[in-house]
Amino acid sequence: MMEFCGINPAVLVASLMVASVPILLAAIGELVVEKSGVLNLGVEGMMIMGAICGFITAVSTGSPLLGFLGGAAGGAVLSLMFAFLTQVLLANQVATGLALTLFGLGLSSLMGQGYNGIKPPLTEALNFGPLSDIPVLGRILFSHDWVVYASVAIIAAVWAVLKYTRTGLILRAVGENHDAAHALGYKVGLVRLLAILFGGALAGMGGAYLSLVRVPQWTDGITAGAGWIALAIVVFASWKPWRVLIGGYLFGGISVLQLNLQACGSRIPVEYLSMSPYLITILVLVIMSSGRGRAALNAPASLGQSFHASR
Amino acid sequence: MKKILLATAALSLMAGAVLAQDKTKACFVYVGPIGDGGWTYQHHQGLMAVEAEFGDKVETAYQENVPEGADAERVLTQMALSGCDIIFTTSFGYMDATNAVAAKFPDVKFEHATGFKRDTPNVSTYNARFYEGRAVMGTIAGRMTKSNKIGYIGSFPIPEVIQGINASFIHAKKVNSDVTISVVWAYTWFDPAKEADAAKALIEQGVDVILAHTDSTAPLAEAAKTPGVIGFGQASDMEAYKPSPRVSSIIDNWAPYYIERVGAVIDGTWAQKDTWAGISGGEVLIGEITEAVPAEVKAEAEALAASIADGSYHPFTGPLNKQDGTPWLAEGVVANDGELAGLNFYVEGITGDIPK
Q1: Chain B residues with beta carbon closer than 8 angstroms to that of A6
Q2: In terms of domains, do B48 and B20 share one?
Q3: CB atoms A11 and B204 under 8 Å
Q4: Could you read off the pLDDT of B290-339 as tens digits, one per residue?
Q5: Number of CB pairs < 8 Å for A and B?
Q6: What is the DSSP string of B108-151?
Q7: What is the DSSP code (8-state) at residue A88?
Q8: Are the Cβ atoms of A271 and B205 closer than 8 angstroms?
Q9: B353 is a domain residue
Q10: Quick one: DSSP state of residue A120?
Q11: What is the ipTM of this complex?
Q12: Together in a domain, B47 and B170
């Protein structure tokens, strides 16, 4: 196996898969929300609520699995507030989303009092027996915990549902033209509510992955902007599920690579390495949107617009 | 009517001032949460020791998670206005804020941890010789590593951290001539996610002993995921990770200093000073070396700690060369405190550059 500066590519790929899980989960959830025509900028807030709710559940029950469910519930409950404000009271989605992020950061900090410095129960890697001893592939494919596989499976499922099922068709119809969907008899508000809940649950699960596996610890502001990266990745992916996977792995890959380059004593100044993941995210977004509105064309037509049946 | 109101207000203010004089108010500014299990936790232990020592004679207050920068100045001003008699600012980055606020409140005493600026007579600085503890950890690291690669998670490239890197490497090298050190700069004191990622990157590079100069237990939590990787408690004992990956620890023991200084305010004997105590003064403690370390290595580390404590050995004793090979300390020469306080270079054998 070729090695550059002591960096083993198989190990690098394996750890970027782990590093990307939180943003992947949050991004695929947000993709579904945006496909239904709702722009929820509160991903960061829902993620951190998932992180603390998941942590508290896992610590108090001793079960990491329940922790992830608790995290999903935490994110979903917060998103319910967003749904009420934007779908029932028809509040502005951008402002409500931003408020949700600020609220989530504050509330999680309050809930997390007394949970600093505690060890959560461990989420073990799945046991694949001899499969994980296969050179290179074993390390990349068969060395992870269940959430890593779940994140890829969820992306596949979202892709299949959006592309092949009636449910996906209704969701897309609501997102593309809510008036037409309403005229056809679909309940726009209900569809959007379910999409928002799904997005909240996945963002919460992504947050729980941070506090239960990646770190694993609770601390204020643990998401450190991951929610915003997830939002950028949805645009980067031009609302296509598989591209979310590419975007997530690209971002995770660069984040992991920069630390590895530092650890192996690369001569590139640390400051440039630390900013590289963000720089590349910006760069890709610029390139994506410069292609004569191709990315913009793919955006759901009703994105960010409130719907009221009387209109 | 207005006059009466004003008079009442003035009276109650005076009464407040009289009451405040009964008790000495000691205030603390923390850079992280008390629950970090490391740096801030230990400072808070110091606060509790002050309360236990003086009981009713003192009142304490603290604020957690105060960012280093403009916010710190606001918090310090608020504390000074609220009647604090002595304020401990417990992170290097509060240096300028501490001195700026101290200049405005000459009657309030300020104690800045790990800094070197004392612009006005009401500012003292205090620090601990963490590098003495690092020398002991470095010895254990050099003996314990199987890959001959040890890793160091640096927070910011400041003298205190560079002392730690140098002291760890010098003593690891002394017992294991094949050892190399990889340094990752996290550019944070407290960000468990980042600290964990840094530890992970080091482990992927083949590092099997991790020294952290950040405040949380996250590097140990990460080390715990890979069998054979060890680390050390930093700032606090971090006993939750015993017996491995945490095989020993450097404990910051601020309590004696805090009791002494608050006591000085109560007695009215407080005067500006610069304190830099180490293992001998009890400010730096070496946490229990666990059974994961062979007995002879444990004995060697304890002997080193004892020789530092009784003053017979200094961790920076020549011959030592700078990274570029130029001589720094000649045979038998010991680095002086001024030199150490401004240390900005690696010793020979460490690769990589210190970020500017």
Answers
A1: 205-206
A2: yes
A3: yes
A4: 999 999 999 999 999 999 999 999 999 989 999 999 999 999 999 998 89
A5: 92
A6: SEEEEET-----STTEEEEEE-HHHHHHHHHHHHHHH-SSSEEE
A7: I
A8: no
A9: no
A10: P
A11: 0.74
A12: no
